[in-house]
Design brief:
This is Mitogen-activated protein kinase 3. Keywords: ATP-binding, Kinase, Nucleotide-binding, Serine/threonine-protein kinase, Transferase. One of its GO terms (molecular function) is ATP binding. It comes from Trifolium medium. InterPro entries: Kinase-like_dom_sf (IPR011009), MAPK (IPR050117), Prot_kinase_dom (IPR000719), Ser/Thr_kinase_AS (IPR008271). The protein is of the alpha+beta class. It has a single domain, classed as Transferase(Phosphotransferase), domain 1 (Orthogonal Bundle), CATH 1.10.510.10. The chain has a 3-stranded antiparallel sheet. A hairpin with a 5-residue loop joins strand 5 and strand 6. Helix 2 runs antiparallel to helix 4. The protein is globular. The termini are far apart. The mean pLDDT is 90.
Amino acid sequence: VIGLRDVIPPPLRREFNDVYITTELMDTDLHQIIRSNQNLSDEHCQYFLYQILRGLRYIHSANIIHRDLKPSNLLLNANCDLKIIDFGLARPTMESDFMTEYVVTRWYRAPELLLNSSDYTSAIDVWSVGCIFMELMNKKPLFPGKDHVHQMRLLTEVRLYKSA
């Protein structure tokens, strides 16, 4: 999870229109790494997955669901340190009043969300992590749906192949 360095308030409280937040400096995001020609070893992919899951465990232990995990919300620095960002859609698990159906970028959306369930759990974040990991390994999205219906079709047409 990205570290908060500072919050810069406005000079006059009654003119509180903008909030400036300073965070750790990161070099890029996972989306850019996946789209680049940079070769990633299995060890890199495993290390990224480990850090995502560790960050997610931290978030979920605070009873928060991120609800928008995707490669562009995972920042990286030159040391391969990964940080989760963008908590704009995050919600406490206890506040079911705020659980809207429209969350998560389509390609990383869990099946229960595609079926418009408002009764979901932190498992939706785990689904997103699985989709991100496959994209990391294959350098392409696992379920690149063009719209809601196409996304559902891609999920229902999954075929399992045995390795030879």
